[in-house]
Automatic annotation (TrEMBL):
<dbReference type="GO" id="GO:0008878">
    <property type="term" value="F:glucose-1-phosphate adenylyltransferase activity"/>
</dbReference>
<feature type="site" description="Could play a key role in the communication between the regulatory and the substrate sites">
    <location>
        <position position="69"/>
    </location>
</feature>
<keyword id="KW-0548">Nucleotidyltransferase</keyword>
<feature type="binding site">
    <location>
        <position position="109"/>
    </location>
    <ligand>
        <name>alpha-D-glucose 1-phosphate</name>
    </ligand>
</feature>
<protein>
    <recommendedName>
        <fullName>Glucose-1-phosphate adenylyltransferase</fullName>
        <ecNumber>2.7.7.27</ecNumber>
    </recommendedName>
</protein>
<dbReference type="InterPro" id="IPR011831">
    <property type="entry name" value="ADP-Glc_PPase"/>
</dbReference>
<comment type="function">
    <text>Involved in the biosynthesis of ADP-glucose, a building block required for the elongation reactions to produce glycogen. Catalyzes the reaction between ATP and alpha-D-glucose 1-phosphate (G1P) to produce pyrophosphate and ADP-Glc.</text>
</comment>
<feature type="binding site">
    <location>
        <position position="207"/>
    </location>
    <ligand>
        <name>alpha-D-glucose 1-phosphate</name>
    </ligand>
</feature>
<dbReference type="InterPro" id="IPR005836">
    <property type="entry name" value="ADP_Glu_pyroP_CS"/>
</dbReference>
<feature type="domain" description="Nucleotidyl transferase">
    <location>
        <begin position="17"/>
        <end position="286"/>
    </location>
</feature>
<dbReference type="Pfam" id="PF24894">
    <property type="entry name" value="Hexapep_GlmU"/>
</dbReference>
<dbReference type="Pfam" id="PF00483">
    <property type="entry name" value="NTP_transferase"/>
</dbReference>
<feature type="site" description="Could play a key role in the communication between the regulatory and the substrate sites">
    <location>
        <position position="108"/>
    </location>
</feature>
<comment type="pathway">
    <text>Glycan biosynthesis; glycogen biosynthesis.</text>
</comment>
<keyword id="KW-0320">Glycogen biosynthesis</keyword>
<feature type="domain" description="Glucose-1-phosphate adenylyltransferase/Bifunctional protein GlmU-like C-terminal hexapeptide">
    <location>
        <begin position="309"/>
        <end position="412"/>
    </location>
</feature>
<dbReference type="InterPro" id="IPR029044">
    <property type="entry name" value="Nucleotide-diphossugar_trans"/>
</dbReference>
Length: 421
């Protein structure tokens, strides 16, 4: 077959994904006291960062780096256990890049752009054609190959992924103002009056924190930015606005590359950055037809799978029946004469007899004591709920003992329970 008849190689094959995973995520309160936001558990068995990494692998990218900083041990351990299948001998790579004062003894990662700048030598050694810069703390399914293809076809200096949201809901995002040809004409960080889309003025384009560059061009921009004493070393605050004024920045609509199964009606992207948003996104998965399909075999969410026995349900007598309804139950769980409704039980959760949970997100190895009742809660990993404790039925009492969100979700940690003893 002549070379001209061969299909062009996917751009992802020569690209590198650089995942920014150093942030704390302070709005998740005590959930990030011991772990960075990307390491927070999600969906029954995954971590938040698994979505960006799975998207990269499923898109065909085989060179991946993850920059870590804040309380990174939990995250690094997860990456080592679950993402060590990429092999150098197959022309693949997976690098964990903790902040390590590689450029200056006084400097950790000063911003998102600086996290990439401090690792330029590693990037140059791998020599990818394009760089896909990713945030490690969002929940979504996306084919980056389609974004890479638009970037090349349009001849952009930088391509920014964005999604349409109701205009006044965009005040908490970086907002992209585009012309009729989808070139970015302005980039505004958290505007009070977001600009609308030309063809849909009731909507605005919110940046998803996903950027594509040709590697050589990106390195030039990072060095230019590092030499600017007034820069905050951030992609959204510095690199992208400068390029909008001095280069060619294209907008990539998320709906063009969002991966959806036949069960998913609309493009799905969530920033689970608050306790309320985190609880809602997890509980949404218990719907009969959830907005995010984790059962889609064509686009799996890879993660570290612990070796645990199957879930177990025991006792079958009136008032003491092990059962779950509209819930997700992970391996290693024991539902012993207890009931769970519209809840997520992560790996190794144990519900003891007569316990009842409703709207509960129970992280790994939570133990709910005999006769306890939990409603609309998030319980951190390894917490032991005492026998007979009732949470989620008395707002005033809950506020005295635990962290209660604006929408009434109770966040419970072992330290909070220990203070009650």
């Amino acid at each position: 077959m002549p070379d001209s008849a061969l299909a062009p190689a996917p751009l992802a094959r020569t690209a590198m994904a650089f995942v920014l995973a150093g942030g704390r995520g302070s709005r998740l309160m005590e959930l990030t006291d011991k772990r960075a936001k990307p390491a927070v558990f999600f969906g029954g068995k995954s971590r938040i960062i698994d979505f960006a990494l799975s998207n990269a692998i499923n898109s065909g990218i085989r060179r991946v780096a993850v920059a870590t900083q804040y309380k990174a041990h939990s995250l690094i351990r997860h990456l080592q256990r679950g993402w060590n299948f990429l092999r150098h001998e197959r022309n693949e790579s997976f690098d964990i890049l903790p902040a390590s004062q590689r450029v200056s003894e006084q400097s950790w990662y000063l911003g998102t752009a600086d996290a990439v700048f401090q690792n330029i030598d590693i990037i140059e050694d791998l020599a990818p054609k394009h760089m896909v810069i990713l945030a490690g703390d969002h929940i979504y399914k996306m084919d980056y190959e389609r974004m890479l293809q638009q970037h090349v076809d349009q001849g952009a200096d930088c391509t920014v992924s964005c999604m349409a949201v109701p205009r006044m809901e965009a005040t908490g995002f970086g907002v992209i103002h585009v012309d009729a040809s989808s070139w970015v004409v302005d980039f505004v960080e958290k505007p009070k009056d977001p600009p609308g889309i030309p063809d849909r003025p009731d909507l605005a384009l919110a940046s998803m924190g996903i950027y594509v560059f040709e590697t050589k061009f990106l390195i030039e921009q990072l060095k230019r930015d590092a030499a600017d004493p007034n820069s905050s070393r951030d992609f959204g605050k510095d690199i992208i606005p400068w390029l909008v004024q001095n280069g060619r920045v294209a907008a990539h609509r998320f709906e063009r590359s969002c991966v959806r199964s036949s069960m998913e009606e609309a493009p799905y992207w969530r920033d689970v950055g608050t306790v309320d948003a985190y609880w809602e996104a997890n509980i949404d998965l218990t719907d009969i037809i959830p907005p995010l399909d984790l059962f889609d075999k064509s686009w799996p969410i890879w993660t570290y799978g612990e070796v645990v026995p199957p879930a177990k349900f025991v006792h079958d007598e009136a008032g003491r029946r092990g059962e779950t309804i509209s819930s997700l139950v992970s391996g290693g769980c024991i539902v012993s004469g207890a009931s769970a409704h519209r809840s997520l039980l992560f790996t190794g959760v144990h519900l003891h007899s007569y316990a009842k949970v409703d709207g509960a997100v129970l992280l790994p190895n939570v133990d709910v004591g005999r006769g306890a009742r939990l409603t609309k809660v998030v319980v951190d990993r390894g917490v032991r709920i005492p026998e007979g404790m009732v949470i989620g039925e008395d707002p005033a009492e809950d506020s005295r003992r635990f962290r209660v969100s604006e929408k009434g979700v109770c966040l419970i940690t072992q330290a909070m329970l220990d203070r009650l003893a």
